Here is the input.
Amino acid sequence: MSPLNNAEKQARHRKKEELQRFAEQCFREAQLGAFQHGAKAPAMLAQIKHMADLPSGWTDEDYTQALERIQQLRMDLIDPGNDLDNDVHDARGSFEEWGKAPDKGKHRKETQKAIEDTRNLASHLISAVELTALSNGERAAALLEALRHVGRSLANERPLRRSDANTVCLATLPAQYKRPDWFAESFAKYIAFRVGTEEGKNDLGQKLLNYDFGM
Here is the structure.
């Protein structure tokens, strides 16, 4: 690769400055919703700034990936959704049980405490992950083992209510484990929402149909 001339160097410098300004803007916007993420918020905010620090000799691909990652983190922080709350409500059957509860106030407090306790556990797990020197792939392996551990208990729980969290844990288990009747529909919906596009869903569906178990 030939050395860059002054004009090219200046263009790269301006492009990197634009990325840093974009990261600063996203950082400020993300701070507004960061409190909802508890212990993991500081690490997510730090990642926004870190992604703007491009490596020496960065390429257009590095630049594009940094832009995408910064925007992803920004959206995660300002629009966190209610996945954890929803999973707790679903697993407890909160809305169904609320209608039957003789003491509605007590039921509401118990549910809120369950959500807070679950959020605290999630924060502890995330903190433990952040403290390790393992690679992201190794962290993923450890967390998947934890999902399998919970999944084995869920597989023997009766009755077992449908939730995204229960579905994903059950999905980590080998074929000898029985799943509830709602599992296939719940797992398909979970994957479809995350794949997003019709093209992506069709591609995934075709690969499932064509999977060779003899491989």
